[in-house]
Write a structure and sequence with these properties.
Blueprint lengths: L2 E5 L5 H10 L3 E4 L2 H7 L1 H6 L4 E4 L17 E5 L2 H14 L4 E6 L12 H14 L3 E7 L8 H13 L4 E3 L6 H6 L4 E4 L1 H4 L4
Parallel strand pairs: 1-2, 1-8, 2-3, 3-4, 4-5, 5-6, 6-7
């Protein structure tokens, strides 16, 4: 049964709280600054909440990642991996991390290219001590996602990993078919963004 991450970016806490009070646990944000303004007090009040960092992480903001975020879905370069490695030692936390894979080999998208994935994965898990639990992808928006989801499903089998972060409001049913374990659902839960 996949975990649903309610993607709460740009929504105010007044819109998010009813879902927290209902008992939903997993929430996703895209920006560190916005998360710092919204989540620290709420996470103290509801200690079982899990916060997922879904967006591109700028290295100058990365010092604020912990202890706020429990999961990172967007690890996409070695510089960031080294920063996270140092931070987790300093803060004595070990977040669960997905490597973002550029599955469609798109120039405009972040993520590790398939030909570099093996060396990057080994560096992160063996040398930097990161808890890599799986891979994340954003398939090309102008193509059917099934081909890319299948590639991702094969990848986690190759690496003997358990988790896949893929599937959003428009394609989550397809993602479930290909064994996604974390669905990133925003507009289907909170409505469309302004």
């Amino acid at each position: 049964m996949p975990t649903i991450i309610a993607v709460s970016k740009t929504f105010e806490m007044s819109k998010i709280l009813p879902l927290i009070e209902y008992g939903h646990v997993h929430f996703g944000e895209n920006k560190i600054q916005e998360s710092l303004n919204k989540w620290p007090k709420i996470k103290q009040q509801y200690p079982n909440l899990k916060l997922h960092m879904l967006g591109k992480i700028q290295s100058n903001k990365s010092k604020h990642l912990f202890p706020l975020f429990d999961y990172i879905h967007s690890l996409d370069n070695l510089k960031l991996a080294k920063i996270i490695s140092k931070l987790q030692k300093k803060e004595k936390v070990r977040p669960k991390i997905f490597i973002q894979v550029n599955i469609g080999n798109e120039i405009q998208k972040n993520g590790i290219e398939l030909e570099n994935l093996n060396s990057f994965y080994n560096e992160c898990s063996n040398n930097l001590g990161l808890d890599i639990i799986g891979f994340m992808c954003l398939p090309p928006s102008n193509k059917k996602p099934s081909k890319y989801f299948k590639l991702m499903e094969d990848l986690i089998l190759d690496y003997n990993l358990n988790d896949l972060s893929m599937g959003m409001s428009g394609d989550y049913l397809e993602a479930i078919r290909y064994k996604s374990t974390y669905l990133r659902i925003g507009s289907s839960i909170f409505g469309s963004r302004n």
